Amino acid sequence: MPILPDTIFALSSAPGRAAVAVVRISGPRAKEALGRLAGHVPETRKATLRTIRHPSTGQDIDRAIILFFAGPSSFTGEDVAEILLHGGKAVVASVLNALGTLQCRLAEPGEFARRAFDNGKMDLTEAEGIADLIDAETEAQRVQAVAQAGGMLRRLYDAWRSDVLDAMALTEAAIDFSDEEDVAADAAARARDIIGGLVDALAKHLKDGRRGEILRDGFRVVLAGAPNVGKSSLLNALARRDAAIVSSEAGTTRDVIEVRLDLDGFPVIVSDTAGIRDGGGEIEREGIRRTLERGREADLVLWVRDATETADEVPRALLEAGAAIILVENKVDLVSGEERAGAESQELLRVSAASGAGLGALVTRIAMLARERIAPTESPVLTQARHREALEDCMKCLEDHLSQNQYDAELAAEDLRRASQALGRITGVVDAEEVLGRIFARFCIGK
Ligand SMILES: Nc1nc2c(ncn2[C@@H]2O[C@H](COP(=O)(O)OP(=O)(O)OP(=O)(O)O)[C@@H](O)[C@H]2O)c(=O)[nH]1
Ligand SMILES: [Mg+2]
Asked: How much is the pTM?
C-alpha cells in the first residue's frame, strides 16, 4: 500500500492581529479535519459560514467561512480546506492547536507550494513567480512576477526543450540510418537547422542587460563624491527621512547606507557612501574601498559635488566601471547666478538638498533611467541567476553540437541530451533535490 502523505496545516495569512486570518489544510485528512472542526464539509468550492469547535473540548472557537477544494482541483493538487477566521491571535492559536490534535502537522516553509510542484500543478519558474509576487514591493516587480507565475517563462523554456527533443529524435534517426547516408545526412542537417534557430533565440534572451534580474533585485544607485559635498543629505532628501547622519565634519559617513525606494513603480536602491579623499584613517580608507566597490556594482552613479568648491574629477575606477554617471552639483542655494559650464561629457544636474531645489528633476531622471533599463517587456525575460546559469550551460552544449568538425552522431546526441537537461533544470522536469529544497525554503510558512 502506498504511504499517504502527511496532512499539513498552517496560517497562510500574515501573523498578527487582522480582520481575517486564513488557515489552510492540505492532504488526505483535510476533509476529515474540516468536518471535525466545522461539523460539516461544504460542497467543493462553496463558501459556507459555520461555527468552528474544538474537537476535544467541544468549545466554540469562532464563526468562520469554510471552503473545501477536492483534489486534484486545488492549489496543491490534494484535498485542501481553508478556514477564514476572525484574525485574532488567540483564535488562530486555538484552531492551529485543534488541528494538531487531528493527526495533522504544521507545514514547513513552502511546503504547500512544494506539493503543488510535486503534483504537477506548476513548474519551478511558476513557483518562483509566486514567491516573487509575494515579495514584490513595486508595480513593475508585480507585473514581472505575475507574468512568470502565469507560466510565461515555463512556456518559453518548455518550447525550447521540445525543440531540443525534436533535434534529438532526428539525431537518433541519423544514428539508426547510418548505413543509408542520404537519410542520415538529411536528418542531421534538419537537427542542425533547429539548433541553429534555438542558439539565436537563446543568445538574444541571454543578452538582455540583465533587465529582469535587476528589476527583481532593484536598480542600484550609488551616491559618491568627495567628503562633505552633501551625499548623506541627498540620501535623506530622497528617502524623506533621516536615514544617514549628516554633519559639517568631513568624513562623517564611513559605511554604506542603503535605502529602498519606489520611484514611479520601479524598485531603486540608493546607497550613501563614504566620501572619497586621499589620506584619512584606517576606517575611512576601508569606507572608501567600499564606496568604489559599490560604484562598480551600480547601475547608476551620482557623482556629487559642492557647488561652492572647484569641480573635481570622477575617479577613474568609477568611470571604468561602466555604470551610467550623472554629475550632481549640490548646495546651489549657496551660489548665485550663472551655472558653471560643464566641460565634461557627463550629464549635470544642479540641486540643493537643503532647499529641495532640483530634487524633483533628479528623481524624475533616476526613474527614467530605471525605466529604460528594467521596465517589464511583453516578451519573457530572464529573472534569475539560476535560470541564466542553466541557459548558459544549454547554450554551450548547443554550440558544441554545431561546432563539430567531423560530424559524429553519437557525440551530437550527447550534446543535445545535456542541453535538454539544462533546460529541464530550470522548469524542474529534471530533478535536483538540492535545488528544489533551496527554492521552496524561500517561501514563508503557509505558502
Ligand atoms: N547650504 C547647504 N548645505 C548643505 C546642503 N547639503 C548638505 N549641506 C551641508 O553640508 C554638510 C555635509 O553634509 P553631508 O550630507 O554630511 O555630506 P556628505 O557628503 O555625506 O559628507 P561625508 O559623509 O563626510 O562624506 C552638512 O553640514 C550639511 O548640512 C545643501 O544643499 N545646501
Ligand atoms: Mg555622508
From this structure: 0.85
